[in-house]
Specification:
alpha+beta
């Protein structure tokens, strides 16, 4: 087994820590991945950090990890752990996990052409329509809420999950720029450079071409400066 696939298995099998939630008011649900059913949250409950959460308007939900207490967005769809504060290593680890979790299955025979890794690579085969994306507005609400409440890490992870699952959304200049801005804000210049470089290889980029070149050059310059001896 190669080192690459060893890393893949390691990252995809990271432990999923449990965190406490407290539902102060309103309604919140967690998705049962086995039955594909939404289960109402209890007043106090311990859940895996990777739980998918859906909150109704006006809901007040709090998440606890150690001494950290974080409020969750209302009328939103998000991963529970994204509510908690993130260090740069936390962000890097989670971003890597998001990308690796979307790797396609290995080809059945050696004669087949191996697919390019990552759902955001290469040319897209079909368009994703925003209305067809489950809880699309609630996903955007979570991103907006995280950004407005001083949690750019949560905003980045929520947006990255969305555009990794539905990569056609990066054809929208507003979402693409928002992703790039969050990378830049959090100092993730390597991710910004890699993401824009991959997108520039697409055969269909539309109106995002100038945007991609601008952010790619910005990331390249910052990486070059950081590599220079001081």
């Amino acid at each position: 087994m190669t080192a690459y696939f060893s890393l893949l298995i390691l990252l995809l099998n990271l432990p999923d820590p449990l965190v406490w939630t407290r539902l102060e008011s309103g309604q919140a649900f967690t998705l049962n991945p086995v039955k594909s059913e939404w289960i109402p949250l209890k007043e106090r409950e311990q859940l895996p950090a990777q739980s998918i959460i859906l909150t109704k308007p006006g809901t007040r939900l709090y998440v606890y990890e150690g001494t950290e207490t974080s409020e969750a967005p209302a009328n939103a769809y998000f991963i529970l752990g994204d509510v908690l504060p993130k260090t740069t290593p936390d962000l890097v680890r989670t971003l890597t996990h998001i990308e690796l979790s979307q790797l396609p299955a290995a080809p059945a025979t050696q004669e087949q052409t191996p697919p390019k890794p990552g759902i955001t690579y290469g040319e897209l085969k079909k368009q994703a329509e925003a209305p067809a994306i489950p809880f699309y507005l609630e996903r955007l609400t979570a991103i907006d809420w995280f950004a407005a409440h001083g949690q750019p890490g949560g905003a980045l992870l929520s947006l990255k999950r969305l555009v990794t699952r539905y990569p056609d959304l990066l054809e929208r200049a507003d979402l693409a720029e928002r992703l790039f801005t969050l990378y830049d804000q959090l100092g993730l210049d390597g991710y910004l450079y890699d993401e824009t470089s991959r997108l520039m290889l697409r055969q269909t980029r539309g109106d995002t071409d100038p945007l991609l070149r601008q952010w790619n050059e910005r990331a390249r310059q910052k990486l070059t400066r950081s590599a220079q001896p001081r």
